[in-house]
Amino acid sequence: MKKIGCLLLIACSVLGTQAQTVYKGQVRVEHPSVVRSSDNRLTISMDVILLNNLEISSNRSAVLTPILESGAARRVLPPIVVYGHNRDLVSQRNSQVLRYAYTMLRRRQKTEQKIHYLVQLPYEHWMQTVKLSMDANLCGCRNKVKVHSLEPIMSTLLRQSALQPAIAYLLPPVEAANAPAFNATEIQAIIHTCPQQLSLEEIFSLAQTFEPGSESFNHAFQVAVLMFPEDTTANLNAAAMEIQRGGDLSLAKSYLAKTSLKTGATLNNRGVIAWLEGDLNTAKLFFLSAEKAGCAQATTNLKNIEK
């Protein structure tokens, strides 16, 4: 039996979300997106591409820092740190880890490198109308800034949206599950004390007694994937739960990586993630494939994504 979970989004109206070239035409930003979920979580995502013409000398580094701004308010996001060859070796030798950085990587000269950037943070009122910019610094020895540029990427107006992407769960009918060793009351108690005593079917049967999206509903799926980390259905439902609650999309992707791409529910949920990240073309391709695989939620999403 398939159970549909609907994710109510507070989406953004985006001005100028086409690819932007920054840092003297040496870095390109694609698919920038800022989305506010119904539980007041802000998701910022984009693809940052280091172009072939970006040259960083061996002893230098470049720091690319996304910034959210609205009037006098601003939020500096975790930066991307790109090292030259020798600078990277020194960093590794000294075990230097910049805990505030989103990622650190070595520049491969005359080669295009892509970084998938995704950060989530609590929504604040001043973020209703925000500008997303990229602050780019080229640093020399002792981290002295040699070149600096601050360039706009996009502007957003966050507002309530009527769109409700349908998220697919796979839950077997309770009557079809193996005979439970415990009754419903016992299962509800055991899941908080000795969850290892429960079968996957018992955990799923408990989940179906809760309201989709509730804390108890989410907890059941978190326990299921913890107890059965290699089970494809447990991973699929954990991903669906993570998406629905406006959680960590990177974590949701890791769960989906353990499921079958031929499953309509998996294809649909990957499409929802692409939609949240602002990649509508990829989302449509996933929804079309999911629809062919018999996923009813994908049909709903295809209708809504065209609005």
Overall description:
The chain is of the alpha+beta class. The chain contains nine helices and 14 strands. It has helices spanning 85-93, 184-193, 200-207, 215-227, 232-244, 249-256, 264-276, 280-292, 296-305, and strands spanning 2-6, 9-10, 12-15, 20-22, 27-37, 41-50, 61-70, 73-76, 80-83, 103-106, 113-122, 129-139, 145-158, 166-170. The strands form three sheets. Strands 3, 7, 8, 9, 10, 12 and 13 form a seven-stranded mixed β-sheet that branches. Strands 2, 4, 5, 6 and 11 form a five-stranded antiparallel β-sheet that branches. Strands 1-14 form a two-stranded antiparallel sheet. β7 (61-70) and β8 (73-76) form a beta hairpin. The longest helix has 13 residues, at 215-227. The protein is elongated and about 65 Å long. The protein starts with a strand and ends with a helix. The model is unreliable at 1-17 (pLDDT under 50).
Attribute tags:
five-stranded antiparallel β-sheet, 32% strand, single chain, seven-stranded mixed β-sheet, 14 strands, alpha+beta, disordered N terminus, 307 residues
Q: How would you sum up the major sheet?
A: 7 strands, mixed
Our estimate of the beta-strand percent is 25-35%
What's the shape? elongated
Compute the average pLDDT: 82
Note the total helix count. 9
Please mark out the parts with pLDDT under 50 across 5 or more consecutive residues, or reply none. 1-17
What is the ordering of alpha helices and beta strands?
Answer: EEEEEEEEEHEEEEEHHHHHHHH
Distance between the termini: 29 Å
The Rg value, from CA coordinates, equals: 22 Å
Roughly how much helix do the residues carry, as a percent range? 25-40%
Oligomer state of the chains in this structure: single chain
Work out the number of β strands: 14
Query: What structural category arises from helix and sheet content?
Result: alpha+beta
